[in-house]
TrEMBL record:
InterPro entries: StARD5/6 (IPR043556), START-like_dom_sf (IPR023393), START_lipid-bd_dom (IPR002913). GO terms for biological process: lipid transport. Keywords: Lipid transport, Lipid-binding, Transport. PROSITE patterns: START. May be involved in the intracellular transport of sterols or other lipids. May bind cholesterol or other sterols. SUPFAM superfamilies: Bet v1-like. The keyword Membrane does not apply. Coiled coil: none annotated. The lineage of its organism: Eukaryota, Metazoa, Spiralia, Lophotrochozoa, Mollusca. Pfam families: START. This is START domain-containing protein. The keyword Chloroplast does not apply. Residues 23-218 form the START domain. GO terms for molecular function: lipid binding.
Length: 221
């Protein structure tokens, strides 16, 4: 795909994420803790009709730009904070900078379940989205011949996914965090096993982020 096609795909992906953000229909609670709500619904995305989309929501007592920096998913020095606390990630690489707000990146994950789940790699088109009251990244996997699959990893596929950091009206310095996950990890794992594991993994990511923000002194309470 050329840069125009990549931009069009990024815009379609971002519009899909906006719909997930505001959609209130047919979500089912997957996991609920004191701090995190994880919901799911059947996906309507082509290629993932038999899968689910997951939406996690929680709030943080810190400004949105701090949260954004800790979630920053682009390879290079900017991703150092993300790798500091997200222990599922082994590597983040910037493969191509298409525009200041648009890039192609590769994320590699560690193995899991005592090695029973092989490490994964994802090559994603990522769009940096920012507005007056929100910041975030929206992503979708693409075929990228310049980065062929590494045989030491299983090449997974992310359908439209990403995160939002939103100001909460009337509560200065407090941020609503929304994370959308819609992934096909490939390999030979039963879909039922993957579906049962994702809610806990998503809630765990939110909790690990909270613990690191506390440790670094960014949460007011």
């Amino acid at each position: 795909m050329d840069s125009t096609q990549l931009r069009e795909l990024a815009n379609v992906t971002s519009n899909t994420l906006q719909r997930y953000l505001h959609d209130q229909d047919n979500w089912k609670t997957s996991k609920k803790t004191r701090d995190v709500l994880v919901e799911n619904k059947h996906s309507s995305i082509s290629g993932n009709e038999h899968g689910h989309v997951y939406r996690a929501q929680c709030e943080f007592n810190c400004p949105k730009d701090i949260l954004y920096k800790y979630m920053y998913p682009i390879g290079g020095s900017g991703s150092d904070l993300r790798k500091k606390w997200d222990k599922d990630i082994s590597d983040i690489q910037l493969l191509a900078q298409i525009a200041p707000d648009l890039s192609v990146n590769m994320v590699r994950t560690n193995s899991a379940a005592m090695g029973m789940i092989y490490p994964r790699e994802y090559v994603d088109l990522m769009l940096d989205v920012q507005g007056e009251d929100f910041m975030g990244f929206h992503a979708v996997s693409i075929d990228y011949p310049a980065q062929p699959p590494d045989p030491k990893f299983v090449r997974g596929w992310n359908h439209p996914c990403g995160f939002f950091c939103h100001d909460i009206p009337g509560q200065p310095g407090r941020t609503k965090f929304v994370l959308v996950v819609q992934t096909d990890i490939k390999g030979n794992l039963p879909r039922s096993l993957v579906d049962s594991a994702i809610p806990g993994a998503v809630a765990g990511l939110c909790n690990n982020l909270r613990q690191m923000l506390k440790k670094d002194g960014h949460l007011t309470r």
